[in-house]
Design brief:
The protein is an all-beta fold. The chain contains no helices and 16 strands. Strands 1, 2, 4, 5, 7, 12, 13, 14 and 16 form a 9-stranded antiparallel beta sheet that branches. Strands 3-6-15-8-9-10-11 form a 7-stranded antiparallel beta sheet, with no helix packed on it. β10 and β11 form a beta hairpin. It is globular and about 45 Å long.
Length: 231
């Protein structure tokens, strides 16, 4: 009988923490073959208290986030403040799924996303955590109606005004990240090390951001590879 799953809660990490380096793997663009990326995974429970929202520090959550009829709507303006006073980062409204922070194993984010026309220069989903000096292992960006891995790899050339299904599978030990759009494996990217990780989604302004940025999400799931203890 497999080891029972247990939840690992996020704990603040000291600034002097030495992160663990992992070997890089090569980038690999892939052909579109339809599969179920959740096969062999178990879905973990998520409730409302697990959705931690980062938003401009001087605004109430309701000014930049809504949850109606099962749809998370997150928006931000390029002129907004960052999430905390003095932060050098750009404006954002993001949901952090940090109750399921993890240090090893194979983890998966699933969600259905929608990007309205005009939203550009923005991160809409990320795997937070990486070996210093990086902060992230994976970022899904939108530029001029297309989905990109960071700014380097085009994943989907036309994404505006339609729902798409996103699956991001992070194998910490491999290490790699597999990206599926609408059931098609689009890309395998290298892991980036780091002492812990968790998933985020929403809008986080990047270079050349549009004045208004918005994304909508539904069907959010966090999954873990079967027969593995949550760590």
């Amino acid at each position: 009988m497999g080891t029972p799953l247990r939840r690992s809660f996020f704990l603040p990490l000291p600034s002097f923490l030495i992160v663990i380096a992992t070997a890089a793997v090569f980038f690999l663009p892939l052909s579109e073959s339809q599969i179920d990326p959740t096969e062999g995974f178990v879905e973990l429970p998520i409730n409302e208290s697990d959705f931690h929202i980062q938003k401009p520090y001087d605004l109430p959550v309701s000014d930049r986030y809504s949850f109606v009829d099962g749809i998370h709507k997150l928006w931000v303006y390029s002129t907004d403040h960052p999430f905390s006073p003095g932060s050098p980062t750009g404006p954002r409204t993001e949901v952090m799924l940090r109750e399921y922070s993890y240090v090893r194993g194979v983890w998966q984010f699933e969600g259905h996303g929608y990007i309205p026309n005009g939203t550009s220069g923005v991160c809409v989903m990320q795997v937070f955590g990486a070996q210093f000096p990086r902060n992230t292992t994976f970022i899904l960006n939108v530029y001029n109606g297309s989905l990109y891995y960071y700014q380097s790899m085009l994943l989907v050339p036309s994404i505006y005004d339609r729902w798409f299904k996103l699956n991001v599978v992070h194998d910490v030990d491999a290490p790699d990240v597999k990206v599926y759009i609408d059931g098609a494996l689009k890309y395998v990217a290298p892991g980036q090390g780091g002492a812990f990780h968790y998933f985020k989604f929403g809008v986080y302004s990047q270079k050349n951001a549009s004045y208004y940025m918005e994304s909508r999400w539904t069907g959010i799931r966090v999954l873990k590879k079967l027969n593995e203890t949550i760590q």
